[in-house]
Each structure stands twice: as structure tokens, then as C-alpha cells.
Amino acid sequence: MNTSANPSTGASRQRVCILGATGSVGTSTLDVISRHPDRFELFALTAHSRVEELLRQCVAWRPRFAALPDAAQAGDLLVRLREQGIATEVLCGAQALCDLAAHEEVDTVMAAIVGAAGLAPCLAAAHAGKRLLLANKEALVVGGALFMDAVHAGGATLLPIDSEHSAIFQCLPEDRARWAHRIDHILLTSSGGPFRQRDPATFGEITPDEACAHPNFAMGRKISVDSATMMNKALEVIEARWLFELAPQQIRIVIHPQQIVHSMVVCRDNSVLAQLGTPDMRVPIAYGLSFPERIESGAAQLDFTSLAALTFEAPDFERCPGLALAWETLRGPEGSTTVLNAANEAAVAAFLAGTIRFDQIHSVIAHALERIDVGSAGHDSLEALLEIDSRARRQAAQFVKGLAP
Ligand code: NAD
Ligand code: MG
């Protein structure tokens, strides 16, 4: 690992690149890092469109690099940084994200971009053997075997940031070779989303703002809609399959509205290991940053005496028809999960734009899965997967056109 000497302590600091720094996970990562100036040095920050927020972050953190996809926005950022006497170099374009993720001076990459757009920089970080903190679950859902091959070939350390997967990871021994013998199955917990008790007959009236008002976490709008449809849990089932090398039948879901138990491992001897805590993304982020050590995260301690009850129930597959697609696509031909993710991204964007209703999201995904034949397509390169991804988006867009809101 490339590390720089800390001038005050002489200890080495991890140089961190945050992809998607302006988002919910990105800003929580900055919060954790701000608590440990002796351990971490901010090397690069990237964003998509929130230039003001990125400017504010650059002023506060003075990273060596900042990146935006759009050249005009990058130019604007550069001018405004120089006006304030800040020397941060500004890069633009998709390739810049890959270059920063693989930069020889970077030790740790926080992958906090939302959607398949994060796959290419994740692959770059994996090939370059970085410590890769994965919040961007879609990258693994799209990338699957290709992603994991890159991690193994590059010698990267892949650390889960999704709270459920961090929980499972925390319940398992550090030696990955012992995982397979230990696990009977895993239980991913889910809050059930904001509409767990709402009459499904009224799902067509749900507005984007209602869908984005998650009971326990303030998250980006895309993952908030995914939580409301439970597609987030479907993506997490697929994510778990790759992170922990499990068969589809070894991954189960349990609804736990309080979100205190973040997930569980059921061992071969039927002993159950769980990870608990207040619902706060800074805990998995801090663990990813400090693994195998533990550092202060800023999260509140759990007060067991104030917990009224911890309840658990079975998921309702009729109410959330997208959920079953996780196991179906995992058992289907390779590339099916890429279609699932792309169609979901297209459907969520259409719902947030007011083009389709909440209860039509599932039909867009089901339509794309039915129509796209992945059997003949290649799956062994980024280009091949992105080709499947764009076919699925085109198919979804065409279907959306025919739907009346
Ligand atoms: P967000 O929308 O708040 O932030 C997304 C970030 O990605 C922003 O910085 C944005 O500028 C950047 N971005 C968006 N599109 C991009 C593109 N095309 N190219 C480059 N950058 C782009 O999202 P979030 O809630 O922080 O979630 C980020 C990821 O973490 C998602 O994959 C989500 O599923 C996962 N995650 C989030 C949470 C949470 O609590 N928010 C929890 C678990 C997992
Ligand atoms: Mg999660």
C-alpha cells in the first residue's frame, strides 16, 4: 500500500479517493475521515453534477484532484478554485474516474457512485489492487464474475459498505477460506421500506417525494426508490452472492422494521451470528476504512433499555414482485442480472421524472428481462456487459413510452 508519512506522528496515512463524494455515502465518508486526520489523507474527490457541493468540499479538504464528467462544469470548478487560491487539479470525463481510482498514489477507493456508471472505475481500482470499499452495489450486480475476477487478479481487498453486507462480513472470520465451511445461509434484513403497511391498491398514487422519504436513513433518491419497491433488497441478494460466494438458495431475507439487526449468518451448526447497532452508515464506512481494526465512527451507541422490541417477519413477495427476480436472474443465464439492473435504473429514472407510476416500475423490469436475450451475448468484458446494459435501457425506454402515467 502506498502511504505517506504523517508529519505530526510519523505514522503512515491511507490516501483516499472518493468516487461520488457529494452523495449520501460520500459525505458520510468525509465525516468519518474528518474524525481521523492522523489516519487518512484525502487524495481525490469526484462528483457528477453537484458542482457547488464539490467546490465546497475542495475548499474544505484541498484534495490533490477533483473530477467531474462534464468539461464545462470542470472548467467552471477550476476557475472558482483558483480564485480562492486552491491548487486542486481538476479532471473531466469518464476516463478520469478510472485514472484516479487506479492512481499509483491511492491506497483506498470509496466506490460511492450510484448505478452502473460506477462499474468501470471499480474495475480499474480492482485491477490496480486497491483497498476497495464498495457501496456501489449496482457495479457488482452488473459486473458479477468479471468484477470478482478483477479483484482476484489485481489482488485488491474488497470490503463491503452496504450495511447488510458489512454486517455479514463482520460476523465471518477474517480468513475467507473458512467462510464456505461455516455458512449454512445468510439472512439479509430489510426495513420493508416506507410502504410496508400501505394498501397496494394505492401504490399507483405514490409520488417520488413519498417514495424517497425512508423511515430510518437519508439516502440518495435512486436507492430510496429501490428501498420502497424492495428492488434494493433484490440487488443486495445478488451483491451477497458475489461477495460471499454463495449459492442463490443460501441467501434469504427477513423483514426487520427497526433496522437494529443489520443482517445475520446462520452457521452449519444452526448457531446464528448477528451484527447490531444504530442504523448509521458511518459504522460500515468506518469498518471499511479501518479493517481489521475498529475506529470511532460518530454513530450513537445502541441503548438496549430503550428498545421496545425487535420484530421479524417474512417478506411479502406479492406486494414486492421485483424481489423474486433476484433469485430468478441469479439462476438464469449470465448477463440476466445486468439486464435487471439496467431496466431498474431506467424505470426508477422514469418514475422520478414523473413519466411512469410507482406501480409500473416492476413491469418495465419484467418486460426487459423477457425481451432481452442474453444467451448469445458475451459477458467476459466490460464492453460486452455495457452492451447488454444499453440494450436493456433501450428496451425499457421503448416500453416506458407506451405507458401512460
Ligand atoms: P447519491 O445519489 O446520494 O450519490 C451518488 C453520487 O454518485 C453523487 O456524488 C453523484 O455525483 C455521483 N454520480 C451519480 N451519477 C454518476 C455518474 N453517472 N458518473 C459519476 N458519478 C455519478 O447516492 P447514495 O445514496 O450515496 O448511494 C451511492 C451508492 O451507495 C449506491 O449504489 C447505493 O445503492 C449505495 N448505498 C447507499 C446507502 C445509503 O445509505 N445512501 C446505503 C447502502 C448502499
Ligand atoms: Mg443496504
Would you write up a description of this structure?
This protein has 405 residues and is α/β, with parallel strands linked by helices. The protein folds into three domains: 3-160, Rossmann fold (3-Layer(aba) Sandwich); 163-316, no CATH class; 332-405, RNA polymerase sigma factor, region 2, helix turn helix motif (Rna Polymerase Sigma Factor, Chain: A, Orthogonal Bundle), CATH 1.10.1740.10. It is built from 16 helices and twelve strands. It has helices at 24-34, 51-61, 71-83, 94-101, 119-127, 137-154, 163-171, 179-182, 208-211, 221-229, 231-243, 282-290, 325-331, 336-352, 361-371, 382-401, and strands at residues 3-5, 12-19, 40-46, 65-68, 89-92, 108-111, 131-134, 157-160, 183-190, 251-255, 261-267, 272-276. The strands form two sheets. Strands 1, 2, 3, 4, 5, 6, 7 and 8 form an eight-stranded mixed sheet that branches. It has a four-stranded mixed sheet with strand order 10-9-11-12. Strand 4, helix 3 (71-83) and strand 5 form a beta-alpha-beta unit. The mean pLDDT is 95.
Helices and strands in order, then pairings?
Blueprint: E1 3-5, E2 12-19, H1 24-34, E3 40-46, H2 51-61, E4 65-68, H3 71-83, E5 89-92, H4 94-101, E6 108-111, H5 119-127, E7 131-134, H6 137-154, E8 157-160, H7 163-171, H8 179-182, E9 183-190, H9 208-211, H10 221-229, H11 231-243, E10 251-255, E11 261-267, E12 272-276, H12 282-290, H13 325-331, H14 336-352, H15 361-371, H16 382-401
Parallel strand pairs: 2-3, 2-6, 3-4, 4-5, 6-7, 7-8, 9-10
Antiparallel strand pairs: 1-2, 9-11, 11-12
Helix pairs in contact: 2-3, 4-5, 5-6, 6-11, 6-14, 10-14, 11-13, 14-15, 14-16, 15-16
The structure holds nicotinamide-adenine-dinucleotide and magnesium ion (MG).
